[in-house]
Amino acid sequence: MGLRTYQSLWATELRRPGVPEAPVAERFDRVKEAGYHGMCIDLGALSLDEARATVPDYARTGLAGLLTAFPKSVEDLRPALHLAKDIGAPYVIVVGQVMPITVSGMIPVVRDWLRVSAEEGMPIQFETHRNCITNDLFSTLQLLDAVPEMRLSADLSHYVVDRELTFPIPPEAMGWMSRVLARADSFQGRVATRSQVQVPIGFPQFRRWLDLFAGWWEEGFRGYRARTQADCLFLCELGPPEYAMTDANGDELSDRWAEALELRRIAEAAWERAAA
After folding, report:
1. pLDDT (mean) for 252-264
2. What keywords is this UniProt entry annotated with (predicted)?
């Protein structure tokens, strides 16, 4: 077993007014040359047709596939599962856009998506993400109790902001995060504070938050290694503006490409510590 690191196609976007984006093929090549194992495509950033157009880039570069879906209904998930097979994805990350107010209303929706997953033979993981069915940490913890087969893709940055967690994190909140990590079968790389979902990891004022997240990843890796021999996926997902912080001119405050490589290094070190 090993740690397999992925980059996100969405995270390679600049979103800088007046500056054209690099062609998708060039971005695939750059990710391959940087030594990532795979590329994740995001149906929140691409249409289904645009995403299908990347299939040859996977075959050409040999990058492994991964897919994040934003289904707006139960059946809306099915085409994403088909595309995931075409790019060789081991599973689909679900950011579910059906959002009942009550946990009792959420449970049948989650079970229906799991049913579609089983029918199509493509596993799914529910991302811990804002503005979706797992928007709130507390309701997600209740969902985990109600649906034991529900697995997560842990992006804890969303819950640090969602709960406005203070530093140091209170013991009770650390316990909540541990419950999430115990159900996570993949992990995503982004560092947040209580007020900002993505901060420049090289700035000294954010070092304590970077260390916090590295510790969470190590905890998650340790639990993962204890329950399976399969490779583990870590997705570097430093998003473009407005995720990325910018100055008065709209220019980013840091080099996201370099930061993603550093996050990869930190995750790999955490994986090795978890092995020890």
Report:
1. 98
2. Isomerase
Closest CA to 1 of 226, 205, 262, 192: 226
- Which region holds residue 233: left if phi is over 0, alpha if psi is between -120 and 50, else beta? beta
Which band of pLDDT confidence, cut at 50, 70 and 90, is reported for residue 40? very high
Sorted by where each starts, the structural domains of the chain and their CATH numbers stand as: 3-275 (3.20.20.150)
Three-state SS for 113? helix
Distance of CA 36 to the CA centre of its chain: 15
Residues 6+ apart with CB under 8 A from 46: 9, 10, 54
Amino acid at position 123, single letter? P
| SS3 state at 10 | helix
Rounded alpha-carbon distances, angstroms, from residue 14 to 27, 136, 251, 255, 275: 11, 29, 10, 11, 36
Q: What is the pLDDT of residues 229-242, one digit of tens each?
A: 999 999 999 999 99
CB of 7 closer than 8 Å to CB of 260: yes
Calculate the CA 272 to chain-centre distance: 21
Contact 96, 131 (CB under 8 A): no
Rounded to the nearest 10 degrees, the angle between the axes of helix 137-146 and helix 103-120 is: 60
Strand, coil or helix: 109: helix
pLDDT digits (tens, 9 = 90+) for 200-212: 999 999 999 999 9
Strand partners, 187: 154, 234
Q: What's the angle, vertex CA 192, arms to CA 248 and CA 265, rounded to 5? A: 105
Return the structure tokens found at 183: 């159900």
* CA–CA distance, 79 with 139 (Å, rounded to integer): 28
